[in-house]
Design goal:
Elements: H1 3-34, H2 37-66, H3 68-74, H4 77-131
Length: 147
């Protein structure tokens, strides 16, 4: 097998693994929204495994990538076009993954900020009850005008 064909094979395997990561990233949003931490952790572990496999592929093809200008000069035009196509597809997948991850991170932070504001509000109401001598009484938020 020629170096160019070995490189394209490695790049295709890498692209396919990134496609798996993109699919996993898309699925994790549902787990985040539902609060299913067990499901989310399973997906994160799957994603970690895929990323480890991608790193192994990168190590296998590192020498070929470094010599790409030399290999390219000797490769058939259709091989060169194939390499460029796979690289572009991989770049698009990476952009998609980054977009998904950024959106999910923003949603997570927004939810975290909302929960923190709710906790601060509860603490403030408790302080107000304590200040007015209603320590320990529940705050239903309703006024009983029959008393």
């Amino acid at each position: 097998m020629t170096e160019a064909k070995r490189l394209i094979e490695g790049l295709v395997r890498q692209r396919d693994k990134y496609a798996e990561v993109a699919t996993i990233s898309e699925r994790q949003r549902g787990f985040l929204e539902s609060g299913d931490l067990d499901g989310l952790m399973m997906l994160i572990e799957s994603k970690r495994t895929c990323l480890e496999e991608i790193e192994a592929i990168k190590r296998d093809t590192a020498g070929l990538l470094e010599r790409w200008p030399e290999v390219r000069a000797q490769a058939a035009p259709e091989i060169v076009r194939s390499v460029e196509k796979v690289v572009e597809e991989t770049r698009a997948l990476l952009e998609r993954i980054l977009k998904i991850e950024e959106e999910d991170r923003a949603k997570f932070e927004q939810g975290r900020d909302k929960r923190a504001a709710e906790i601060r509000g509860l603490q403030q109401r408790k302080k107000m009850r304590d200040a007015y001598g209603q320590k320990g009484k529940g705050d239903s938020g309703l006024i009983d005008d029959k008393k």
